[in-house]
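Bug report (template v2)

What were you trying to do?
Predict the complex of my protein with pyridoxal-5'-phosphate.

What happened?
Run completed; filing so the output is reviewed.

Input:
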Amino acid sequence: MIKQAVIVAAGFGSRLKERTVSKPKGFLELNGIAIVEWSVQKLLACGIEKIIIGTGYRAEAYDELAKKYPAIQTVFSADYETTGSMATLGVCAKFVTDEFLLLESDLIYDGIGLSVLCNDIHENVILASGATNSGDEVYLEAVNGSFLKALSKNKAELGSIYGELTGISKLSPALLSAMRAYYEKNRAEFPKLDYERAIMMSTDKHEVYIRKIENYAWREIDDESHLEMAQSVVLPVILENESLRSIRREVLLNPGPATTSDSVKYAQVCADICPREKEFGDVMKWICRELTAVVADPSGYETVFFGGSGTAADEVMISSCVPENGHILIVDNGSYGERLAKIAAVYKINHTVFKSSTYEKIDIAALENEFKTAKYTHLGIVYHETTTGLLNPLDVICPLAKKYNIVTIVDAVSIYAGMPMDLSKLGIDFMASTSNKNIQGMAGVGFVICKKSELEKTKNIPMRNYYLNLYDQYAHFLKTGQTRFTPPVQTLYALRQAILETKQETVEKRWQRYTECWRILVDAVKKFNLKMLVKEEDQSHLITAIFEPETPKYSFESLHDLARQHGFTIYPGKLGNINTFRIANIGDIKPCEMKRFTEVLKNYLVSIGECV
Ligand SMILES: Cc1ncc(COP(=O)(O)O)c(C=O)c1O
C-alpha cells in the first residue's frame, strides 16, 4: 500500500515569466484551483497519508497550502537556486520511509494514473504516455519489453521511442538511495541534475518498469503554450474522464449509514489480501490508533474493533465490562438506551433502568440520587439519542458518575467524529461507535474505544459470549497484530480512507458543516410552520425529529418517495406514540444539498395544502 508522495516543487518556472513572479509554478490556476492543489486532492483521494513537498522558489506559497492540508509536509531545499529536481528530492528523502509516488509540481493529470501506479506489481514504475507533441517531451527508450533503458529530451540519443515521461512515478526507497548516491558522486559536475536522469543512471541495479497508458490525459506546464493547451484541450478531457468514474449521488438524510465520498467507495476496490498478512495487520493497527486519536490520547486509550454494526459494539461493552457482582444503571430515554437495557437483560446482567423523557433533558439531580445509593458499579448511557436528536449532557453526567467511582459505558454511535469530544475530559471509560456514521465510512465495523486501565480490569470477567468478547479480542490483537476472526477487509480499507478524510477536514470543521446543514433545515422547518420534537437548544445538530403534518393528505411514504425522486433519502420517526419523521444531516453532505432538500420539502407541503 502506497502511503507517501513527494512533489518536487523548488524550481523557478522562469519560462512562465510574470505568471511566476509572486508564486511558484504549482500555483498556476486552472478553473480557479492551483494545479498543485488539484494534485494534492487526487493524492488524498488515492489514500496517500503524507505528501512531502520539496520547496525552494517562493516556498511560502507551499507553506500556506500546508495549513489547509494537514497531510502536507514542506521541506525547504536551501540550494534551490543552484540545483535541480534531484537535489530537491534528496532533501525530502529523509522523510521517505516506504515506497512512494514522485510527482512534479507543474502537472495536470487524470487521477487514474495514481491508482494505476499504486496497483502496479513492480516496485519502481514510471508512468508514460503516447505522443503529446507538447514540445518539451522527455522520451523513454525501453528494453526487455517495457523496462527503462534510457531517457532523453533528444530523440537522436535514443535507439527507439517507447513513450513519454509524464512526471509521475512510483519509487522504492532502495532506488531512491541509489539515485542519491549517484547524485552525491556527480554533484560537483552536474549540480542541476534532474531526478529522471538519476533514475536512468541507477537502472543497472534497479529495474524500472514503464507503465504506458497510450491516451493518458496529462500535461506539464512549462510555458505559455503549455498553459493554453492545458486549459483548452487537456483539462476538459481529464474532467470528462474523471466524471465518468463518479458514482451516482444519493444524499442520505437517514441517520446512517451516511453518505460517503467516492474516494471512500473506491478505497474498497483493491487487490485481494489475506488479512493475516503483516501488511494488513499494519493497516488495522493504524486504523485503531487513528480512531482512538479522534477522541483521546492513544497512550491511555485503545480501540478494539469487531466485524459488526453499532449494536455489536454496544453488546461488546455491556457483555464484557460488567463483572458478575457488578450492577449497571442504564439510562433509557430513547430506543438506543432501551436497547442497552435489553442487551443487559439478555445476558442476565444485574441492571436497573433509569427512565427519562425521550425529548426533554435528563433530571441530573434524580440521576445523582441514584449514584448516591452506591448500588451501581457501572453506568450505561447513550450520548446522542438518535431516536429524537436529543443530546444528553454527558459533559455533566459522566464526570458526576466518576465522582461516585462508577465506570462509564457510553453508546456514542451517532456522535463520535461528528462533534469534538475528549474522553478523558468527559470521564468516559468505554465508548462504542461504528464505521458508517460520522466517520463517513462503510457499514461493517463496530468498535469500542477503551480507557486502557479500565480495559485491563475486565481481563478476569468470565466470558459471557465468544465472538463479542472485548478483552479476548484486544489481547489477541495486541499479541498477534491480527483479529481473532476474519475481519471485513474491504470495509476496513474504506474506513482507512474515511479516517484520512476526517483528518483532512478535522472534526471541528465537520461539526461546523453538520451544524450549518442543520441550521438550514431548522430555519426552513420553522418557516414552513412545522414543529420539532426536541427544543432547539437540546438538539444534537445531527438529526432532527419533526412532527408530521396533521392532515390526512400527509403520508410518510409519499414524502419519502418524492424526496427519493430528487436523490434524498429520509427516515421515519421511531417513537411509537408520537408521529414524527426524521432528517439527519451527517455524512458527506453539503449545505447546498440540504438547501435543495428544504425546497423539496416545501413543494411537498404545498402539494398537500399545508400553509408554507
Ligand atoms: C445511538 C445509536 N446506538 C446504536 C445504534 C445501532 O447501530 P446499528 O444499527 O449499526 O447496529 C444506532 C443506529 O442508528 C444509534 O444511533
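What did the reviewer find?
The chain has a mean pLDDT of 96. The pocket of pyridoxal-5'-phosphate is lined by residues 255-256, 309-311, 314, 336, 382, 386, 411, 413-414, 434 (CB under 6 Å).
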